[in-house]
Amino acid sequence: MSKFGPRFLAIKTLFRWLRCHRKRRPPLESVIEEAYSEYGELNSKDRALVREIATGVVRNLTLLEWLISRYLKNKGKIDLTLKTALMVGAYQILFLKKVPDHAALNETVEATKRLLKGRSSRGSGFVNAVLRRIVKEKKNITESYILELPPEIRYSHPEWIVKRWNERFGLNQTISILKANNKRPPVTLRVNLLRCNREELIRLLEDHGIKAIPGKYSPQAVILDGHFGDIRGLPGFKEGYFQVQDEGAQLIGFLVDPKPGEVVLDACAGVGGKSTHLVELSRGRATIFACEKTVSRKAALSENLKRLGMISQVKVMEEGDCLRAFSKGNKVYFDKILLDAPCSGLGVIRRHPDIKWNRVVSDITQLRQLQMTLLQGLKRLVKVKGKLIYATCTLEPEETTLLIEDFLKNNPSWELMDPSPFIPGSASGVLIKKHFFYSTPPKTDGFFGAVLRRVK
Ligand SMILES: C[S@@+](CC[C@H](N)C(=O)[O-])C[C@H]1O[C@@H](n2cnc3c(N)ncnc32)[C@H](O)[C@@H]1O
Fold it and tell me: How far is the CA of 397 from the centre of ligand 1 (A)?
């Protein structure tokens, strides 16, 4: 058991994440994992609380900063450890109904003392005093009080994102998106059809007291109702009965529609969320190749394949760069290529709130260049009459529709196909506009898809 409590770990995690320059900031999720392993075993309830506080603070960062600044006498620069402790305390007091105020306050002050290692009793005294005021005035910090704030503060999103969406969608729709991004999404699983079916997985989870319901859009989705604990501790995880995957991401697999006997490439496989789905959809009878450039993700991909029992069904290329893996003596032509491209990730802010703070507007232009390079490089590997399925977890036009329209303009031997026939009936509520596939929060994560066919 760890002698460090969840508040200590939450402050430590957030401090490490906040102190990095945006360009060098690791994903919040990996900082959380690092803290878990560094500070000893936490039970799964405490692990869940660390994750809940850390992601909650990042989700509501600007609003918390604004609220805290109202309680500071000296508005000058405040020590980052103390500021982080205040945000951790204020988040619990204002957002976490299940945590009593006295526990939020006392535990956060104790964690601050431990962090300061007796260096300064003034520091923890200051945290104590500010949090006490927040508890006292909690009733006044109501919706109407903060509703007056500009949306970028009220809903804690960077100004450039709010401006961009406001120009595209208008204020009302922008506010709905900001609100959806700030809501904690459910944990969604994709049943591994090679090991069991959806009903069996739901029964197994319920036998262990975990409420689970079928997803709405993907026939393989299982949604955990109110369970935010550690995934690795779930029954069936080690046995490979499921993969964690949002319903929007699951629908991308259906767009690829791999058939038995086909040769398919997952060009940017990441940890294998989609490669493993392609195995399931072809009932293990397609030949699937996977490339992943980042070494740690490639290692996680192999782990996942092992867990899900698919190690012999996906050929992970030694050369991780999909633009180099099939050159010269190693040429392969594919029936289908999935390009789940590196992108700004603005469609998955609800799951990874750190994304909104790590991005700047110029990233979109840079990523678009990379996406076009990948599309142009991969098109040569597709057989005539074969398909290239382009997907992103962003809905920004430069990375989606405008990019595909540009590609089609310069590549007359390619056409855009209607994705509707590939989408399961249960996903009829998902948007298809001008032959482009969109899944959007709050129904699902924000995913874009385009099915391109090589005509000659
Ligand atoms: C959107 S993520 C893929 C997520 C993955 N498909 C999944 O479902 O888990 C994009 C991935 O592309 C990888 N990547 C970027 N450039 C690449 C390249 N040239 N070749 C192969 N992988 C690349 C990144 O490391 C990243 O893991």
Answer: 20
Q: What's the 31 CA to ligand 1 centre distance in angstroms?
A: 20
Residue of the nearest CA to atom 12 in ligand 1?
268
Cα(297) to centroid(ligand 1), Å: 9
ipTM summary value: 0.99
The CATH number assigned to the domain with range 187-244 reads 3.30.70.1170
Q: What is the mean pLDDT of each run of 10 residues along the chain (456 residues)?
A: 82 95 88 88 85 97 93 80 96 93 95 82 90 89 77 96 97 95 95 97 96 96 86 93 97 98 98 98 97 96 98 97 88 94 98 96 97 97 97 98 98 97 90 93 94 96
Domain 247-454 has CATH 2.115.10.20: no
- Ligand 1: residues with CB < 6 A are 268-274, 291-294, 297, 320-323, 340, 342
Q: Answer yes or no: same fold for 6-149 and 187-244.
A: no
Residues in Cβ contact with 110 at an 8 Å cutoff, skipping those fewer than 6 apart: 5, 7
The pLDDT value recorded for residue 145 is: 73
Q: Please tell me the class of the 6-149 domain.
A: mainly alpha
Q: Is the dihedral of CA 66, 72, 77, 82 positive or negative?
A: negative
> Do strands 334-340 and 382-392 pair parallel, antiparallel, or not at all (unpaired)?
parallel
CA-proximal residue: ligand 1, atom 26 (nearest): 270
Give which of 285, 282, 245 is closest to 391, Cα–Cα.
245
Does 52 count as an annotated binding residue? no
Residue 16's identity, in one-letter code, is R
Ligand 1 centroid – CA 153 distance (Å) = 32
Residue found under tokens 């090679």: 194
Nearest CA to ligand 1 atom 8: 273
Per domain, the residue ranges of the chain are 6-149, 156-182, 187-244, 247-454
Residue in 292, 317, 346, 389 to alter for ligand 1 test, most ligand atoms within 8 A of Cβ: 292
pLDDT of residue 232: 86
pLDDT score for 123: 87
pLDDT at 120: 66
Binning the chain into helix, strand and coil, the percentages to the nearest 5 are 50, 15, 35
pLDDT at 119: 67
According to the model, what pLDDT value does residue 118 have? 64
User: CA 109 to CA 129: how far, in whole Å?
Assistant: 10
Catalytic residue check, 322 = no
